[in-house]
Specification:
alpha/beta; 13% strand; Rossmann fold; 2 domains
Length: 429
């Protein structure tokens, strides 16, 4: 109590002003209910007006001073009251919106998250921990940590950062010993070094970047993804699976994790049980989505959860991994690794892709996923089709805005986008 009235905080003047305002209102209130002359009633109205203005103005200043004192905005920066008002509104309003659990990894999941954060803050992204390639693989081997790449992408997708900060965290070194390494991965690796475990490191990075919702590794175990091909060959390691299949003929029969006794985070199971909707994908079928379902307890939690279960089907096939796969084939692969009936609704893009772009993808052994909707409907799965295509830098991607609107509407909620969200979230957590 006494700390709030110490000199230098700039709060005593507004407390005094509010007290004066309350005194004026009290005096006006007493006069109003006494048998006094007209002149005194006019005086009471004047005091009531002055008192009301003093109370409202001082309350506004008290809130502003409190917020400035609680966040690291420098004194040289202009403080925008509208941003603070939007901040309070966003945090309270978005918390009432649907609870969404998004399961996957890679570019597909982060793309969807960018759209969802405009509609709800109740987002839990569950990310696979089987990545062992690229910069993540190097850090995983050298520092004995969990792979940071997919986690980083999801954190940045849900973060409300300044553009320069996002550009910095996505920067890849081009020369020297760090060539090919992403600064965001190193940032998370440093957080891991000063934290008790990887989960805590992810939470600290999320706090720094003012993430909307939560990003959770599916497990704290060091997981290795293995694939058994139809010819009986077993490949160990997520990066080796994709590389082998791109260079050799073969088709995946099943994938599995080592160690088999890997347990999920309890927070992951809690989020699944508490969700309004669980979304699988979009993303690589065998290396991003299914690995999450293979962690002990995750599939069981999904089965028990009363949430609606939806799958966002990929627009293009994955070279080597899902060659010639149709939308129905994607669904059946998920069921083989979990249980029949895991998907209630399937979201499929039905818009056309330019022929030049098709030719480019064909040259890379990728093609459009064929929409055999009749087969899906026979399985009792409802299908939602629409124009979810967005071409970015010559690459086929899901339109995060349209996809997010569909997911929100599936929960039965009114799809009201909060367009007032501001970068003030970056300063206050």
């Amino acid at each position: 109590m006494f700390k709030w009235i110490k000199s230098g905080i700039g709060i005593k003047r507004w407390i005094c002003l509010s007290v004066i305002g309350i005194v004026c209102l009290s005096f006006a209130f007493i006069l109003m209910f006494r048998n006094v002359s007209l002149i005194w009633r006019l005086i009471a109205i004047v005091f009531a007006t002055i008192g009301s203005l003093f109370v409202v103005f001082s309350a506004q200043k008290l809130v502003k001073v409190s917020l400035i004192s609680a966040n690291p905005v420098s004194k040289k920066q202009k403080c925008d009251e509208n941003k603070f008002a939007n901040l309070v509104y966003d945090r309270r309003y978005l918390m009432k919106d649907p609870k969404i659990v998004a399961i996957g990894g890679g570019t597909g999941l982060s793309t969807m998250l960018r759209g969802l954060k405009a509609y709800t803050s109740n987002i839990t992204a569950v990310v696979t921990m089987a990545d062992d390639g690229g910069g993540s693989g190097v850090l995983r081997e050298d520092l004995r940590m969990l792979p940071p790449g997919d986690i980083r992408n999801c954190i940045l997708a849900l973060a409300d950062t300044e553009p320069i900060m996002e550009k910095l965290l996505q920067y890849r070194f081009e020369d020297g010993m760090l060539k090919g390494q992403c600064f965001g991965n190193l940032f998370l690796a440093a957080m891991n070094g000063i934290s008790g475990n990887f989960e805590e490191a992810v939470q600290k990075m999320s706090d720094v970047l003012a993430v909307t919702g939560r990003v959770l590794p599916v497990s704290l175990y060091s997981l290795k993804l293995c694939a058994e091909l139809e010819n009986g060959l077993i490949i160990h390691g997520e990066s080796k699976i994709t590389r082998f299949l791109c260079q050799n003929s073969g088709r995946i029969k099943r994938v599995f994790l080592l160690p088999r006794e890997a347990e999920p985070l309890q927070e992951v199971l809690d989020a699944i049980m508490d969700a309004d909707i669980i979304v699988l994908g979009p993303g690589s079928l065998y290396t991003s989505i299914i690995p999450n379902l293979l962690v002990n307890g995750v599939t069981s939690a999904i089965r028990k959860s009363p949430a609606l279960k939806a799958y966002v089907c990929n627009i293009m096939t994955q070279p080597g991994e899902t060659d010639k796969y149709t939308a129905y084939d994607h669904l059946k692969a998920i069921e083989r690794h979990s249980y029949k009936g895991i998907i209630d609704k399937c979201i499929i893009n039905d818009s056309k892709i330019p022929e030049k772009l098709k030719d480019k993808y064909r040259s890379e052994n990728s093609e459009i996923v064929q929409n055999d909707i009749d087969k899906i409907l026979k399985e009792g799965i409802k299908v939602i089709t629409g124009d979810y295509l967005k071409i970015t830098n010559g690459l086929v991607r899901h339109d995060s805005e349209k996809l997010a609107r569909t997911i929100i509407e599936l929960t039965g909620s009114k799809c009201k986008k909060n367009a007032k969200r501001t970068a003030s979230l970056y300063y206050i957590k």
